[in-house]
Amino acid sequence: MTQRTDDKQKPEILSQQIVAQSRLFKVEQLELRFSNGEERIYERMRGSNRGAVMIIACPDPEHLYLVREYCAGTHDYQLGFPKGLIDPGEDILTAANRELKEEIGFGARRFVQLKSLALAPGYFNATMHLVLAFDLYAEQQAGDEPEPLELVRWARQESAALLQQADFTEARSVAALLLAQHYLEANPDVFKQTAGASEDHRP
Amino acid sequence: MTQRTDDKQKPEILSQQIVAQSRLFKVEQLELRFSNGEERIYERMRGSNRGAVMIIACPDPEHLYLVREYCAGTHDYQLGFPKGLIDPGEDILTAANRELKEEIGFGARRFVQLKSLALAPGYFNATMHLVLAFDLYAEQQAGDEPEPLELVRWARQESAALLQQADFTEARSVAALLLAQHYLEANPDVFKQTAGASEDHRP
């Protein structure tokens, strides 16, 4: 019951081929043989493998910044933390600071990496790095958004109310909120620290 | 800064068409005009809209059940909560009980719905309903898994260690763990309740 993943023999990939492709998406079909001899056809999405960042920006100890943004998948506006793909050659924190400037008009002088999350690993190989941002300063950078995002300043003690918002449901934003709250409760002194000392608290 | 989503004017869909399709995936292209006049091309995945369930099964007040399962997207074994698509005509709790029987060999007599999560709403319209399961009983049901899933019994007080597992990273499982812990800490009497009284605690 406590066998480690490393002990498990992965299925053998008998064949793999791209079976559908659009501007953004590439679907790959895998023919697999499991270690017990069972054979199956699976499909997965091929991504850019560049990774993405999601930023929980803290303007002060009592608040978090969210954005409300149009989402084509659901064709409505959704509330969540600022996020975006890492550009080629960028490191995680550079990408986090750029996305913050593009999406909410703030940069940050100090970051803490919380955890890296996967999106439905059965179908994707997509990683999103959660980053807390402190010591904010006003700086707007032009992004590729078709319209300015709505900035929402949320009181941290109202996180139960945030979880009840009908438009705050993205799994990665929900996980980010709860992980950020755990971190901030366990590290109340993080707001007193000086800039320039970025920390890595990833498990 | 606290404008409600309802006030926001959605972009107008000027055209929509399927631009790529495989056995499992269907990619739709949208031509959009935002309320400020900006026009953009977006792509999104068309899903089954049947929804999915993820089940946090509690054999006793101190433990949770996880499964370790092959994930084609990452081509490795990942740890997470049992989950699966809702079959046509099934309600959420019937699907939850069926998936439990198929994936871990237990049914449950009592359920609590926690929250419904979205998967990357920018690209998908996929909803996963998180369900806590209590009063478990042994019952195996045949599923379509190519191999039996590895069952992992995890001590609730070791949730920080679970968050540090390199193979426990799916955003929906991370959110489920943290939401379940909040619920169970706030409702310690849930284990003393009698069967048959399913509750709906969705926000």
From TrEMBL, chains A, B:
Residues 47-178 form the Nudix hydrolase domain. The keyword Phosphoprotein does not apply. GO terms for molecular function: ADP-sugar diphosphatase activity. Pfam families: NUDIX. This is Adenosine nucleotide hydrolase NudE. InterPro entries: NUDIX_hydrolase-like_dom_sf, NUDIX_hydrolase_CS, NUDIX_hydrolase_dom. One of its GO terms (cellular component) is cytosol. Keywords: Hydrolase. The keyword Hydrolase applies. One of its GO terms (biological process) is nucleoside phosphate metabolic process. Signal peptide: none annotated. PROSITE patterns: NUDIX, NUDIX_BOX. Its cofactor is Mg(2+).
